[in-house]
Amino acid sequence: MERNAQRDLHDALWQSSGGYDLVLGPVIMSLGGLWLDRRFDTAPIFMITLLLLGAVGAGAKVYYDWKFRMGRATEERDRLLADAAALRAQAAAEAAG
Fold first, then answer.
1. What is the reported pTM?
2. Which residues have CB under 8 Å from 28's CB, separation 6+?
3. Residue 43: left if φ>0, alpha if ψ -120 to 50, beta else—which one?
4. Of the chain's two ends, which shows fewer C-beta atoms within 10 Å, N or C?
């Protein structure tokens, strides 16, 4: 597989992980809380607390991943716009002279 295809596949898999982050984080944390509740014979305090903590953490991770990717996309857009403006200026200079 050529290098660009590998990079595209890696990027696609990385971007698709948001759904897993939103589900697996809270599920794993709540299972840990359930285990703690059974071990210490408490009400579902640990399970609910860790479930909420996992949900907040998963949401924060997805949000910051999105924010990072949007920043990269904005930088790429700005670079492409600058390149296009330079090419237009070069073409105009060649046409005039």
1. 0.73
2. 54
3. beta
4. C
- Buried b or exposed e, range 13-39, using 16+ CB within 10 angstroms: eeeeeeeebbeebbeebbeebbeebee
Residues 13, 77: Cα–Cα separation, whole Å: 22
**Residue appearing with tokens 């759904």:** 19
- Work out how many domains the chain is built from and give that number: 1
The parent domain of residue 30 ranges over 3-96
Cα–Cα dist 37/35, whole Å: 5
Amino acid at 54: G
Alpha helix positions (H), 16-44 = 18-40
- 34-42 long-range contacts, Cβ below 8 Å, gap at least 24? none
Q: What token pair was written down for 7?
A: 């990079």
**Tens digit of pLDDT for each residue in 6-49?**
888 887 777 777 788 889 999 999 999 999 999 999 989 999 99
